[in-house]
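Example record used in the benchmark description.
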Amino acid sequence: MFKKILIVNRGEIAVRVIRACKELGIISAAIYSDADKTSLHTLLADESYHIGAAPASESYLNKNKILDLAKKIKADAIHPGYGFFSENSDFIQAVENAGIIFIGPSSKSVSKMGNKTEARTLMSQNKVPIVPGATKPVKSINEGIKLASQIGYPILLKAVAGGGGKGMRKINSQEEFSSSFEAVKREALKAFANDDIYIEKYINNPRHIEVQVFGDKLGNYVHLFERECSIQRRHQKIIEEAPSSFVDSETREKITSAAIKAAKACGYYNAGTIEFLMDSNKNFYFLEMNTRIQVEHPVTELITGKDLVKEQIAVASGKPLSFTQNEIKINCHSIEARIYAEDPQNNFLPSTGNILNYYEPSGPGVRVDSGIRRDSAVTVYYDPLVAKLVCWDSNRDNAIKKILRALGEYNISGITNNISFLTKILSSEKFIKGDFDISFLEREKILFDSPESNLVDADMQKASAILAGLLKMRTNVFQRKSDAVSNKWIEQNYE
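Model output (structure tokens):
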């Protein structure tokens, strides 16, 4: 097992990895930018190193500084979390060349699955269903119009190197094609430094179903069932659950078998997710593979009882998977709600500021993965995800009731947040019945009708003041501890 792991990320996922390291007896080393000097992950790590200015390009995406630091502190391995360098095959190759273990898949696997058209070709060759469309980049408008006519409108124009809903546009007719083609190429170049785009058939109102897979370096593979990820805003997930209430046992067997085929096709090891679109008749089509740990991994951990981050570390060190397929069971139902600093009433505009009061829910069946605390700063530099609320119970109905109770206990003041909006979704009749797909929020405009109570009103301010008094002693103790060790970070400052 490793002695020291460098965690090249921030926020709640960095905290999650730090905690796994501590439980495994591994030294956790964190990096932080100017904006994150007093962030929770910086405080909790055994060692913390300043890596650069606030913009990610100068800190969390500074490849040379990160690799130099890893060598200097003699890190055995690097954990990328999600985002940033987690799916960058060039970075992974550089880590491998430096003789450091990357806690994730090989650079070859990431390269294969990171190019969407190559991934589609590979899946088709291995009998994994794909959405009808191109398997190569479309080079010109005329070529694209011809292909779109053959497939039939509506179609999607998508960035070959895309992800996270960026570089993607629905086209309803040939009249829209030319202008959209150029626009998507510009978006792709800006977001991914690659303007290659391709075409696939638009599946009307599908569900987004993904399968968690795991492989080790000895050739063993398992799946850990599916997750339902259809509640999305701007093509990004905000509520996930496992298992899916829409997937029956026969469909589950088919889709998990296809996911294992996909993982084997690219020689994959470590944690990965195969994402599918599923139509109303339960036909499913390969969408993409996320070659990293997912934001929503906790719901899978809770229904199976497996610690995916610890398993990542063990597999990266060369150990075989600690469980077989027959040992993995669905033990409960779990739901995750992403807590964002954003305004749902204003097109989900991100919110910035200092956290004035922060109180997390607790109790049986409640888990919070958070990267913030009272007095934390939410800045313009990074994703506005501040925490994940994850609840579990014996069945879906009880899990919904539990997460609604927990959301009612959550109190964040100082920033606009989406807690009220999440509550409205989870308490809506259609969500409770499981009657939704990826277009749910676009259709259910009623969820946006009433003003949000995300900013603290008079009653909430009174409650916050009382809560602040109750937490003051604990906060002061924690702050004194933080101040006491801050000298250590200054001494270890790495430019």
